[in-house]
Every structure is written in C-alpha cells, then in structure tokens.
Amino acid sequence: MSKQLKYGATQDDLALVAYKNHQNAYFNPKARFYKKNVSLEDIKNSPVVASPLRLFDCSIPANGAASLILSKDETDIELVGAAEETDSLAPFERDNMTSWDATKLAAAEAYKQAGISPDDIGVAELHDAFTSVELISYEDLG
C-alpha cells in the first residue's frame, strides 16, 4: 500500500483502526457486529485478503448513508454547506492512489460554504469499507 510507504503507516496502525471500528459496532444496536466481540489479536491474526489488508480491515457488504454537518456554533441548526464530487476507483484512471480528489474537492467546497475550516470539525463519520481508506479520508478532509 503506497500510504504505508509515503507516511509510514503500519499494519498495527490499520489493526487499531479496525479495532476502533469494531468497538464502536459492539455498542451500536444497528451495527452488523453489535455485541460481537472482536479483539485486537483477532484482527492482527485474521487472514490476509489483499496485502496489507486482512479480513477485519475490510467491511462486510452493507448499505448505508452518512452526512457531515458543519457548524460554527453548537447552537446552529441551519444547513449552510453541502457539496458532492465523484472520482474514479479504477487504478488506471487515477493519478494518485493515496488520495481521493472527490473527498478533497467536496470538503473544500463544504468548508467554504459553511465558512469554516477543518480545525473547526469536532467529529466526523467516514465511509470505512477498508481501514486504509479511512486513513486516506481523514487526511483528505484536512
């Protein structure tokens, strides 16, 4: 994975992302892994699917949706920014496999519309089909 080469992310880093996600699922009654205990050792010892990703670095098929609400104050209730972009997942159509242009462009536009910066974000929920994609998305959002 080029992210590992570029930033020094390790398989332990990926395992910690997977562990955090499974811990969140354990307490969420709507999650497919609700009350299913997956240990850090389970994650680290799971079979390799496509190096460096192991079984628990990959999500199970599921449908869902999420949105990011950006606000200057805790009391704001008006939607002041919304943006979307698309990008190709095909490796032969991408200049860079360690970033998602769509994420960066949509985030920049939403921040601009809302009049905020990434430093103003307190919480973000990201699409995390793979632990590596979650790490890339954190970075692309700023």
Count of extended strands: 2
**How many domains make up the 3D coordinates?**
2
User: Overall 3D geometry?
Assistant: globular
- Provide mean pLDDT, rounded: 82
* Share of β-strand residues: under 5%
Strand order of the largest sheet: 1-2
Give me the strand/helix succession: HHHEEHH
**Terminal Cα span:** 21 Å
Question: Which structural category fits the helices and strands?
Answer: mainly alpha
Task: Supply Rg.
Answer: 17 Å
Count of alpha/pi helices: 5
* Main pleated sheet: 2 strands, antiparallel
Query: Helical percent range?
Result: 25-40%
Unreliably modeled segments: none
Brief rundown of the structure:
The protein has 142 residues and is mostly helical. It is built from 5 helices and 2 strands.
